[in-house]
Amino acid sequence: MDRRQRKTRELIFNAFILLLSKKHYNAITVGEIIELANVGRATFYSHFETKDFLLKELCIELFSHLFNAENDGDNDGIFNCDIHGNVFLHLFKHVKENDNNIRKLLTSKNNELFVEYFKGEVTKLFKERLLDFIDKKPASIPQEFWLNHITSTFIETLRWWIETKMKQTPEVIYNYFLELI
Amino acid sequence: MDRRQRKTRELIFNAFILLLSKKHYNAITVGEIIELANVGRATFYSHFETKDFLLKELCIELFSHLFNAENDGDNDGIFNCDIHGNVFLHLFKHVKENDNNIRKLLTSKNNELFVEYFKGEVTKLFKERLLDFIDKKPASIPQEFWLNHITSTFIETLRWWIETKMKQTPEVIYNYFLELI
DNA sequence: AATATTATTGAACAAAGTGTTCAGTATTAA
DNA sequence: TTAATACTGAACACTTTGTTCAATAATATT
Asked: Do A152 and B152 touch (CB under 8 A)?
């Protein structure tokens, strides 16, 4: 990819992230983004079809290393942690220590699109590790319902934790989560 | 209130509800609403400041009888049910039998505003009846967190039920809910 | 270093939506 | 019947969106 393209992409991403932490997703206009990024209008539209696509590509940029990491070395993908699957504890830690972006996006308003993306990824994680939680499932309820429940509970827990300023350690909040389910 | 006002209010509400079941909240324009309602543009704006206010007033219109009913007779407010507080079972029943509007609104896209309203009302209900559920709370977790959790779980359960076409009876889905918490 | 390719620019553009205004008309309440 | 009030519809300024295009700049290719 042309160096110019990489440059403008990054300028746009940075401007967008900055705006996301200042105002609702719906309230952000393409005009504001390009003004802050110092980029022509036509340039923006040659990179991204719409604002929604910008968000989508930003998610891939920011989180694909987390969710899609193969076991190929020294990245910090979710799958490369303490052998036996404290994936979710790892995620709490990751959010606390590195990932201000997840914090911003998960608590920003009018951002159904991101929540949908994030929930989709987390659902995949739980699906792959469903057996680790299957013993907690009451026998009577359907598995699809259970999957939806633990995923939602995880995300709500994470959101609550972020919104109340992350006063607990990742370990404590992870135990809260385990006690809920 | 002038009969003319009541008439246009109802025309607008009906048009809005119809549109909500056909497209995303964000995609609905004032132009469409007034065209469908057969009402002048100026009239719309003399009734409602913005589309968001329209939604807000629609919620009050549709659900205040549910959530704010005092014990004053033959309404079907949430508080006027089987003495000992199966409020939530009652809500499941209500949604299944009478309330196509909650169904539409709770599963419509780009409708954070409604979900926020609905969650607020349900949170109030749980807060007033927290003692009924307090014995299910693990000792270690904070009460505010617990309140948020059972509220979210209730709403997610309701949403899942609606989205999967309400195949279970209200009693069964209510038991699912109880087993989750 | 010269050239071909590709990205960016800025300005202009149509289209769609928002929210306001106002004079004229119709409906309702008194 | 009259006075008050609600509705109309058309026009308005304004904002935002997404597109187009010729000129210019940066990069890749040889």
From this structure: yes
- Tokens matching residue A90: 């790892």
Contacts of B154 (CB under 8 A, 6+ apart): B88, B122, B126, B177
d(CA A43, CA A30): 11
Region B141-149 average pLDDT: 92
* Strand C: residues with CB below 7 A: A 2, 4-5, 7-8, 38-43, 46-47; B 2-4, 7, 29-31, 41-42, 45, 49-51
For A72-83, how does the pLDDT look when each residue is reduced to its tens digit (9 = 90+)? 445 555 555 544
Nearest-nucleotide field for A33 (CA, C1'): D16
Which residues on chain A are in Cβ contact (under 8 Å) with B176? Answer: 140-141, 145
Min CA distance, B5 vs chain A (Å)?
Answer: 32
Q: Determine the distance between B127 (CA) and D18 (C1') in angstroms.
A: 48
Distance of CA B33 to the CA centre of its chain: 21
Per-residue pLDDT at B149 exceeds 90: yes
For tokens 């607990």, the residue is A168
Res. B159: pLDDT tops 70: yes
Q: pTM, whole model, 2 decimals? A: 0.87
- Domains in chain A with CATH codes: 3-180 (1.10.357.10)
Unique residue bearing structure tokens 């385990």: A178
> Taking 60 as the threshold, does the pLDDT of residue B77 lie above it?
no
Q: What is the per-residue pLDDT for A77? A: 58
CA-CA distance, A111 to A164, in Å (whole number)? Answer: 19
Is A2 near strand D, with its CB below 7 A from some atom of it?
yes
Q: Which residues contact B57 (CB under 8 A, 6 or more apart)?
A: B48
